[in-house]
Amino acid sequence: MPALDREHSTLLVVDIQGRLMPAIEDGSMVIANARRLVDAAALLKVPVLFTEQNPAGLGSTVQELTLSGPVAHKMTFDAVRSPGFLDRLPAERAIVVAGCEAHVCVLQTVLGLLAHGRQVFVVRDALGSRRTESKETAVRRMERHGAEIVTTEMVTFEWLTTCEHPRFREVVALIK
Asked: What pLDDT band is residue 132 in, cutting at 50, 70 and 90?
């Protein structure tokens, strides 16, 4: 897989919801890195799609993540199984995935995207689970099935492409 191209990327933020996050190991780091990705996407005009799993039970997306894109509500763990979900993600776009829980909704959604021939980049430092071994096992499994494993910094610098980009300083300020 080549480097990410902002013109052909969509950021997918999976289930970073109010009632779930207190149980997530290093949840504040997950939220902070997801925030960086959302902000970089906004600066670089990369579309963002959020999902919310059973929002009546788990609440809405955390306040720290200003919703800068549409929200797909779902009851299935694999968002791809929700009616119309895949239609929101153009086939020619690489899907950059962050969210929770790595071993449940993120894993199943990534496997669903891969099964539909989508190019998927999973942002390891913007993933959360209640337990480290669940997250790490999910990351290995997603990688084994064809997802590229990346970090927040990798994504933002690949989206920038050059230090001459007019938004370079603003995007780099998100990382520092």
From this structure: very high
Is residue 2 very low, low, confident or very high in pLDDT (cuts 50, 70, 90)? confident
CB proximity list for 40: less than 8 A, separation 6 or greater: 46, 155, 156, 159, 171, 174
The pLDDT score that the predictor gives to residue 68 is 77
Place domain 6-175 in its CATH homologous superfamily.
Answer: Isochorismatase-like (3.40.50.850)
Q: Quick one: pLDDT at residue 1? A: 62
Residue 172 backbone phi and psi in degrees, to 5: -60, -35
Q: Where are the domains of the chain?
A: 6-175
- Candidates 99, 72, 100; CA nearest to 84 is 72
